[in-house]
Amino acid sequence: MLTDKFQRQIKYLRLAVTDRCNLRCTYCMPEHMKFVQKDKLLSFEEMLRLVSLLAKHGVEKVRITGGEPFVRKGLINFLRELVKIEGIKKVAITTNGVLLDEYLDELDEIGIKDINLSLDATSKEKFFEISRRDDFDKVIHSLKMMVMKNFKVKVNMVVMEGKNTDEIIPLANFAKSYPIQVRFIEEMPFNGKGKEVSKSWNYLDIENELKKEFDDLKELDGSSTAKVYTSNKLNGSLGIIPAFTRTFCGTCDRLRITSLGELRNCLYSQKGMNLKSVIRSGSSDDEVIQKIQEHLLLKKASGFDEEKMNDKNLDSMSLIGG
């Protein structure tokens, strides 16, 4: 088993398959993002090898992220092989939904039913303002099709003061209409420009806003990263992720591998390990796992401790893997 020095066992891998995206959300990447050359990315074969190794040492869940995963050619064939890996109990995907509709039947066939959909507005105008692309209708269509095809859907909204706090209740109302979970995420400093973000809307502010519409809001137990709520007014549920406040770090059981093949212990850590060079140098499976375990022992107790080690602007979310 892979464990850190705080005896937290690693069971969850977030794997970014690309840094590219068909949107340009203001909190995630600059408009003129410089993407890495395709030959610098981990190949799907290399990813499958790494997941297989990690599965042998306790990893049970893999979440595919980006960038936008579906812009990378060959993703579906990769997913077909990924779900076959012994020990992997669950594969999930985070997507912006723009290209999702055409792949839903194949995902259903493969057995991948857990989809997190990024959606930061309920109107075309506000969606364009945040994403800088005119794809709102495609995303809403994908959402409706997922519900119709009985996917397990979580909709994620990044809460940004002065941009979309007025969308909290309208988006929460989606969980009235659909059996989905709508989650609100504290904004983080991963836009590729610097560390400063609006910090006034934390999880307590979001919770208070939700209570204006859902006066019987009740928090449920059992989630490690999100505060999950129910209400008699809901068909689904609501959630809040304290991504900036970082109340969930103590139970962290995850690793991240970026599309460049860099292993990171934390979303807030800047100093990762170049796994790509390790596997491309001809290292044996045992040597690869040894390197991973050595890096894991550098994992800090919390994201605040990781952030203290940083000496420059944080990378964009699309490069790290959202």
Number of strands: 12
Q: Largest sheet, described in full?
A: 12 strands, mixed
In terms of per-residue confidence, which ranges show pLDDT below 50 for 5 or more consecutive residues? none
- Order of helices and strands, N to C? EHEHEHEHHEHHEHEEEEEEHHHH
Strand content: 15-25%
By CATH, the architecture is named Alpha-Beta Barrel
Query: Radius of gyration, rounded?
Result: 19 Å
| H/I helix tally | 12
Helix content: 25-40%
- Spatial ordering of strands, largest sheet: 7-8-9-6-5-4-3-2-1-10-11-12
The CATH class is identified as Alpha Beta
Label the structural class.
alpha/beta
- What is the residue-averaged pLDDT? 88
Corresponding CATH superfamily:
Aldolase class I
* Alpha-carbon distance between the two ends: 25 Å
CATH topology: TIM Barrel
What is the total number of structural domains?
Answer: 1
Which descriptor suits the 3D outline?
Answer: globular
Structure description:
By secondary structure, the chain is an alpha/beta fold. It has a single domain, classed as Alpha-Beta Barrel (TIM Barrel). 30% of the residues lie in helices and 17% in strands. The protein has twelve helices and twelve strands. The protein has helices spanning 44-55, 75-82, 104-110, 124-131, 136-148, 168-172, 174-177, 203-213, 275-280, 285-296, 303-308, 317-320, and strands spanning 12-16, 61-65, 90-95, 114-118, 152-159, 181-186, 218-220, 227-230, 237-241, 254-257, 262-264, 273-274. The protein has a twelve-stranded mixed β-sheet. Helix 1 packs parallel to helix 2. The longest helix has 13 residues, at 136-148. The chain is globular and about 55 Å long. The two termini are 25 Å apart. The mean pLDDT is 88.
